[in-house]
Amino acid sequence: MGRAVITGLGTYVPERILSNHDLEQLVDTNDAWIVSRTGIRERRLARDDQATSDMAYEASARALADAHVEASSLDFIIVATNTPDTLFPSTAARLQARLSEKPIPGVDVQAGCTGWIYGLQMGAAFIEANMYQRVLVVASDKLSSIVDYEDRSTAVLFGDGAGAVVLESGPAGTPFGILASYLNADGRGADLLALPAGGSRSPASRETVDSRLHFLKMSGNDVFRFAVKALPEAVEVGLARGGLSLQDMDLLVPHQANERIIDAARRQLNVAEHKVVKNIERYGNTSVASIPLALEEVRQDGRLVDGMVVVLAAFGSGLTWGSTVVRWGK
Ligand code: UT7
Fold first, then answer.
1. Both 206 and 154 in a single domain?
2. For the whole prediction, is pTM greater than 0.90?
3. Domain containing 75: what range?
4. Among 138, 165, 142, 6, CA closest to 79
C-alpha cells in the first residue's frame, strides 16, 4: 500500500481587509469585544466578482507550482467547500476547466469546516488503493457571500480564503506523508450551524429572502460547547490511529474558529503553547481554508520542518469533526 505524500502546498487570501473597526460601522459591536471573545482583529473579503472557484484556482496554481507538476497530470480533483459557485455543477468542475484543457474527474466535498480534512482522507484513500497517483485537494470558501452583515453574532467571525495540496503516491517505505485520519459526524446538531434556505427543504422564495434565510445561522454557545470537546478528541483519536501519542506530536494546526476554543483544547490536551498554530487574528474563521492557511504560514516562517509529526484537526457544521496526521516532508 503506497502512502499519500503532500508534495505541494499553496494558499490564497483576497486583498481586501475588513478590520474590527470597519465592522463597528456595520453592526453594534466593538474591537474589544471581538478580540476578547474570539481573538480576531481582521479578516479578508473576496471581491464581488470573485467566486469560490476563483480563489480555489489561485491556491491550486500555487500548490501545483510548489509540487513542480502540471495540472494536466492530475488524476482527480477534490474541492472542499460550503459556498460552491453554484449549487450545481460542482466547483471542482469549474476549477478543472480553469486548470487544464484535459478533462479530469472531480467532486465537491461538503462537510462544514471539516471539509478539507474529509477531502484529505478521500484523496489519500484513492492513492493508498492505487486507484490514482496524483490528487489535488482544495479548500475554498467565500463565507462573506452567506454572512449576514446585520447580525453581529456571526458577522464578526468569518473571512474568505483558499488552500490546496497536491497528494502523490510516495516511494515504497517513505517515512513521509499521511499517517492516519479520523472523521466523524453527528447530524443531531445539524441545525446549530446551517444555511436554512436555498436547498430542497426550503427553496428560494420572496419569504425566504425577506426572512434573511439565505444567510448562515449559528447557535454560537452550542457550537462552542461541541467544539471544545470535538477538537481534543479529533487530535487524540487521529494520533492513536497512527500508533502515536500526544508526546509524538510536534505541531498542532487546528481549525481557526475562535482563539478561546483553540486555547481550551490546548489546555485539555496539555500541549505546550509553541506547538499550537494560531493565525485567526488576521483571517478570522475561513472555514475549510483555515488549516491550509495556517499550515502555509508555519512553513513560511520556518516553524514547520521536515520529519515533524503534524496534526491537522477541525470541527464544524454537520456537526462534523476529524483529523489528519502527517509526517511532514516529501
Ligand atoms: O467554524 C464553525 C464553528 N463555529 C464556531 O466555532 C463558533 C463557536 N462559538 C463561538 O465562537 C462563540 O460562541 C461566539 C464568538 C460566537 C460568541 O461568543 P460567546 O462568548 O459565546 O458570546 P455569547 O453568544 O454568549 O454572547 C455574550 C454577549 C451577549 O450579550 P448579553 O446577552 O450578555 O447582553 C451577546 O448579545 O455578547 C453579545 N454579543 C456581542 N457583543 C458585541 C454577541 N456578539 C457580539 C458582538 N459584539 N459581535
1. no
2. yes
3. 4-169
4. 138
